[in-house]
Design the sequence.
């Protein structure tokens, strides 16, 4: 039967329960700015009543569960969004950098270099015997070759930098996978008693999002609360407490740039997954390195090669002031953007004249060279040199602007998903303050129950004395 | 809907940052006056900017070419005009010397004047522009006409011409070879003068009469050359006119693609400023409304 003692027990249970409720509220308030923290809720329940023979008497209150407010469905959508966001971020940054290599708006680019070169040819045509005009032409040609060399150099340097970032990202993926596996093991242990390991789960969730921003993942949670993570085409990166790893292997067929490979266990055969990574920073880095930048370099090489070939072909037919003929204007070996170089060094060697007898006033050959400016080339797909270059920059601009727009859209999507998750999992200070007051009042009332019980006991004791 | 504090801050800072970056872009457009600076600002527009800039650069060069050509043709025009005057004077002397009133010594005196005029004509035929002979064909580094012994003048140049580029695949000749002007199909002027001088000094009236015919043919030839030079000058003038017109058109097109419209941009900038101020004020107000303000 429940006596005064049980009243004390009820009061004690309430004090303990509200103390825990206040701790949880405190935990929520203190983590209001912790990224990835999920709000925790105290679920109170009445203790099982006892039959005292006449009725079921309540035994007080207890904390049944401290529940983590979290929406697993939104969390999985967030992984996908994080991957796309990661991809667009690296693409936008890398392409914005690449755009800087084409300073044509300020006349410092290859297009202005070509115009200056062709104009200098015409100045020589106007004054074929004038050494100054010829020297200017050689200087312009060197500037142009230099711009081709520099642009190719910048693009290659950026490819190398992106290659470094790929290797770094692979390392980060491995670190994150190992941490997730370790947390899997801890969560498995902690939850074997039936209690949710809320803060460990929050930590793992943050790591999964970090991982997703680097490589797109799919996840599966088993009954023990452990998450299996798949990457690429169903390769198991994390399973329970074990993590496999990715490696970055140089590919001799791709300038020694790395391929991303998956290795199962310590001794598994590496499987190349570069092409099946669908999203995330790694996809963006691979796409810019092997797609946009490689494409620009190859177009630039085509342009440089065709330019050198066309100019040399005409130049060889002419005669220099010194009677030289069959000379290459640009080094014949330099048919790529990075190797383009001027071959002749003596301004008299500029073959302006179409015949030896026409020296020094004949300018028919240099006029033929100048005419190449407006001629279309089959090598360039039936457009002129300058139009080919303009199209290259338009393609780069389109790619950069698509990445920029993609990033804007994905940032909005991400914000939307985060706000959904925050609606469930985020901490609202106002709400916590109200909980604080609510639990404080309850705690005070429970104290009152104990004080009252004490008064009752005093009364009983007083009866005995009198 | 529940609003978490973290989310509130994130949304508000996100909004302010976005408005700031938008107005930064507009500010750059106002400062540079350009709408297209990077390829991604307007990919198609950037391609057009490259094409139009190359076009403008080419147009400028062609106008420069035409200036060169005009200088050369104007010099030729002047030289031919003076040559024509010289020949007219020689013709006067020849007509006078052919008359029966002239004594042999008068003819020798006339020969001296003709010889001087012949030398002046050689000088004219050796006219140079920027150090390059203009009646020499393409051997522009040497005098095309060389005076030798016995009043002979020989042509050392060739029959080629120099041209300049004035359009895609269009060139215009800017020189006439001396062989055509002074020794063309109608006869060799210097040979005529040599024969004339010999006739005057040997008192050979038949040779003097024959030289008159040669002089007429020579005058005709020079007038003809002047006509050709005039036609070439006209062609360059009209080409320059249409190039200038095209240049204005291309400049306007470039400006249309590349330049930012200041009125629109400034209006946009004010709009962004208002939006930013509103957002900032709202943020300040929202951050003030918390339950903490009302708890004792």
Sequence:
């Amino acid at each position: 039967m429940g006596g005064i003692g049980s009243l004390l027990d009820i009061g004690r249970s309430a004090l303990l329960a509200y103390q825990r409720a206040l701790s949880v509220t405190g935990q929520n308030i203190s983590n209001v700015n912790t990224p990835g923290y999920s709000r925790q809720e105290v679920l109170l329940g009445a203790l099982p009543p006892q039959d005292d023979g006449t009725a079921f008497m309540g035994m007080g209150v207890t904390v049944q569960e401290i529940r983590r407010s979290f929406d697993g469905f939104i969390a999985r959508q967030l992984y996908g969004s994080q991957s796309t966001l990661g991809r667009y971020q690296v693409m936008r940054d890398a392409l914005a950098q690449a755009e800087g290599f084409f300073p044509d708006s300020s006349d410092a680019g290859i297009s202005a270099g070509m115009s200056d070169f062709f104009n200098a040819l015409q100045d020589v045509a106007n004054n074929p015997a004038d050494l100054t005009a010829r020297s200017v032409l050689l200087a312009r040609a060197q500037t142009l070759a230099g711009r081709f060399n520099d642009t190719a150099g910048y693009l290659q340097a950026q490819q190398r930098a992106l290659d470094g970032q790929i290797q770094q990202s692979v390392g980060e993926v491995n670190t994150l996978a190992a941490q997730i596996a370790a947390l899997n093991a801890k969560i498995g242990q902690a939850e074997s008693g039936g209690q949710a390991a809320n803060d460990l789960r929050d930590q793992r969730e943050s790591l999964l999002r970090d991982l997703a921003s680097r490589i797109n993942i799919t996840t599966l949670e088993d009954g023990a609360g452990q998450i299996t993570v798949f990457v690429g085409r169903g390769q198991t990166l994390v399973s329970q407490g074990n993590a496999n790893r990715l490696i970055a292997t140089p590919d001799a067929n791709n300038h020694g740039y790395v391929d991303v490979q998956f290795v199962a266990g310590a001794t598994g055969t590496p499987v190349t997954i570069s092409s099946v990574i669908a999203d995330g920073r790694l996809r963006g880095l691979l796409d810019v390195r092997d797609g946009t930048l490689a494409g620009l370099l190859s177009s630039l090489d085509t342009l440089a090669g065709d330019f050198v070939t066309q100019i040399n072909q005409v130049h060889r037919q002419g005669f220099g002031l010194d009677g030289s003929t069959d000379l290459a204007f640009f080094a014949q070996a330099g048919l790529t953007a990075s190797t383009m170089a001027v071959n002749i060094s003596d301004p008299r060697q500029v073959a302006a004249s179409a015949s030896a007898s026409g020296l020094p006033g004949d300018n028919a050959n240099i006029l033929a060279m100048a005419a190449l400016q407006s001629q279309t080339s089959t090598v360039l797909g039936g457009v002129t040199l300058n139009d080919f270059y303009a199209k290259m920059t338009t393609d780069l601009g389109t790619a950069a602007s698509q990445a920029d727009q993609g990033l804007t859209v994905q940032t909005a999507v991400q914000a939307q998903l985060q706000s959904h998750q925050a609606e469930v999992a985020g901490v609202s200070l106002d709400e916590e303050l109200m909980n604080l007051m609510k639990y404080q009042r309850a705690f005070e009332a429970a104290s009152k129950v104990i004080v009252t019980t004490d008064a009752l006991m005093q009364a009983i004791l007083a009866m005995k004395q009198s | 809907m529940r609003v978490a504090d973290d989310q509130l801050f994130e949304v508000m800072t996100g909004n302010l940052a976005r408005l700031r970056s938008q107005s930064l872009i507009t500010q750059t457009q106002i400062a540079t006056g350009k709408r297209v600076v990077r390829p991604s600002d307007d990919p198609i527009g950037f391609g057009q900017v490259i094409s139009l800039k190359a076009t403008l650069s080419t147009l400028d060069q062609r106008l420069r070419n035409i200036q060169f050509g005009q200088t050369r043709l104007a010099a030729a025009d002047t030289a031919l005009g003076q040559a024509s005057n010289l020949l007219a004077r020689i013709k006067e002397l020849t007509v006078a010397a052919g008359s029966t009133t002239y004594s042999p010594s008068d003819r020798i005196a006339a020969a001296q004047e003709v010889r001087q005029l012949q030398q002046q004509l050689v000088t004219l035929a050796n006219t140079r522009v920027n150090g390059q002979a203009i009646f020499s064909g393409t051997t522009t580094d040497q005098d095309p006409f060389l005076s030798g012994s016995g009043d002979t003048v020989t042509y050392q140049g060739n029959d080629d011409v120099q041209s300049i580029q004035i359009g895609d695949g269009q060139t215009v000749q800017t020189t006439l070879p001396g062989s055509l002007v002074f020794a063309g199909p109608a006869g060799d002027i210097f040979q005529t003068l040599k024969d004339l001088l010999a006739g005057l000094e040997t008192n050979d009236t038949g040779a003097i009469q024959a030289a008159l015919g040669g002089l007429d043919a020579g005058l005709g030839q020079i007038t003809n050359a002047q006509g050709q030079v005039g036609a070439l000058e006209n062609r360059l003038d009209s080409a320059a006119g249409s190039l200038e017109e095209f240049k204005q058109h291309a400049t306007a097109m470039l400006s249309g693609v590349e330049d930012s419209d200041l009125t629109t941009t400034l209006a946009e900038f004010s709009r962004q400023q208002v939006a930013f101020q509103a957002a900032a004020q709202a943020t300040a107000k929202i951050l003030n409304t918390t339950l903490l303000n009302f708890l004792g």
